[in-house]
Amino acid sequence: MDLSDEELVARAREGDRPAFARLVERHSVSVYNLTLRMVGNREDAEEAAQDVFVRAYRSLDRFRGDSRFSTWLYRIAVNVSLSSARRSRRDLSTTSLSEPEDDEDGLPMQLPDPLADPAERFEQAEFRDHVRNMVAALPPIYSAVISMYHMQSLSYDEIAEALELPIGTVKARLFRARAALRKLIYRSIEPDTLS
Amino acid sequence: MNCESTQRMLYEAVDRALTPDERRLLDAHLAGCERCRSEAAVLDALIKTVEATPAAKPSEAFLSNVMAQLPATSRSSSWSSWFAPSLVFPRLVFAITLAAAALVWLYRASLAEIVENFLPVQTVAGPVTTAIRDVQAYLQAQAGAALTHLPVPVSTSVEWGSLLLVATTLAVGYLLIRAAENLHVGRSSFRIGRRY
After folding, report:
1. Calpha distance A85→A87 (Å, rounded)
2. ipTM of the complex model
3. What value does the mean pLDDT take over residues B4-25?
4. pLDDT higher than 90, residue A89
5. Closest approach of chain A CAs to the CA of B185, in angstroms?
6. Are B98 and B140 in a shared domain?
7. CATH number, domain A5-91, options 2.10.220.10, 3.40.50.970, 2.40.50.200, 1.10.1740.10
8. Of the segments A114-128, B136-150, B160-174, which one has the largest average pLDDT value?
9. Which of B5, B18, B67, B183 to mutate to test binding with chain A, by most A CBs within 10 Å of its CB?
10. Residue of B19, B23, B15 lying closest to B1 (CA atoms)
11. How far apart are CA A99 and CA A187, in angstroms?
């Protein structure tokens, strides 16, 4: 019998550790992928993801079921990842839920002239890997919204709940995150490899 | 429509947030602008690439590592957590101090009245009653001597003095136990000062 998250949470609250283990199994991949995109390396991401579940277990009594359990986990994951990123490789100014200051209004820069047909580059497997790595190189809040929306298919409502932000702000962040990713990718390519 | 507003619309198009009229404007511009058409192709490929990212899997030991880090119980207030090794000592100290404070308060309130009113043995004459009275007298003397060392003026009402003692004990005991709990639940307790 496959119990729902809510049923497993209720059992875990009563001290049923196998029930909590089932929750970990069910959500470990999505939580790990979110921490991986935000933290940027596997070792720290795995430690952060473990921390998410330990914190969740300690806080089970505070989970009131107003949101989905997965959304509640994402909320913890975002905070743990921001903290982890702050301690490791990220600049302090970019590891918060506030947006990084941009030198433009969020729109992408104009395409470099040497790129006659840049979309063709996405046909190359190596370049696609490069793009995926660039998601993790974004400021963590941008990594988070791109990961949740495009990789984990969360709705605006769910992302807003996880980040504790208004939906309008989430949409704006996502818009800027895509533009920042687009900009980052172009900046990461050497001009002489573009032609 | 110029190229700048077209680019903004391209990003909104990813969310299918364009009205039919905006969509027609965008398509018309793209048909005549190679640069924006190229940008649209890049954005489309970029989003498809990100969405096609295969999910990474955590290590095989992930589940066992998480389970090994879990505290004995998810409920910090459950009775079993009182007996977690790192919590026994501060809670024991707290309990003993509280009991001592309560005893002092009782004795100062008037032990004799309490005993005479509530102990049935009091009604029976004999060596047991005498022994109890002796013990009471001794304890009262000791309690009285101990209270003279409290940082409370002698003229202060006995009840207020002992209540102050109980309140202080509660506050110190609470802080002690909270500190021990934070140490008990793991090294990451102080990383983020927020509750979920």
Report:
1. 5
2. 0.78
3. 80
4. no
5. 8
6. yes
7. 1.10.1740.10
8. B160-174
9. B67
10. B23
11. 20
Asked if residue B98 lies in contact with residue B169, where contact means CB atoms within 8 angstroms, the answer is: yes
Range of the domain at B45: 3-51
Confidence of residue A166 (pLDDT cuts 50, 70, 90): very high
Whether residue B181 is contained in a domain is answered as yes
Q: List the one residue out of A186, A188, A187, A183 whose CA is nearest residue A142.
A: A183
Q: What are B119's two structure tokens?
A: 């102990």
Q: How would DSSP label each residue in A118-138?
A: GGGGGGSHHHHHHHHHHHHHS
The length of chain B is 196
Six-digit token string for A47: 């430690």
Residue B23 CB neighbours (<10 A): 14
Q: Which amino acid is at A115?
A: L
A94-193 belongs to CATH 3.40.1390.30: no
In this structure, is residue B61 part of a structural domain? no
Report how far apart the first and last C-alpha atoms of chain B are (Å, whole number).
47
Identify all chain B residues contacting A55, using CB atoms and an 8 Å cutoff: 188, 196
> Looking at the partner chain, which of B12, B59, B66 has a beta carbon nearest the beta carbon of A53?
B66
Cα B80 to Cα B162: distance, rounded to the nearest angstrom: 31
pLDDT in tens, B176-185: 776 665 554 4
Which of B182, B188, B189 is most worth mutating to test chain A (most A CB atoms within 10 A of its CB)?
B188
Residue with tokens 């600049």: A91
- C-alpha distances (whole Å) from A92 to each of A83, A95, A98, A169, B48 are 10, 5, 12, 22, 31
**pLDDT, tens digit (0-9, with 9 covering 90-100), for B141-150:** 776 666 566 5
Q: Across the interface, which of A30, A57, A131 has its CB nearest the CB of B46?
A: A131
Instruction: State the pLDDT at residue B58.
Output: 94
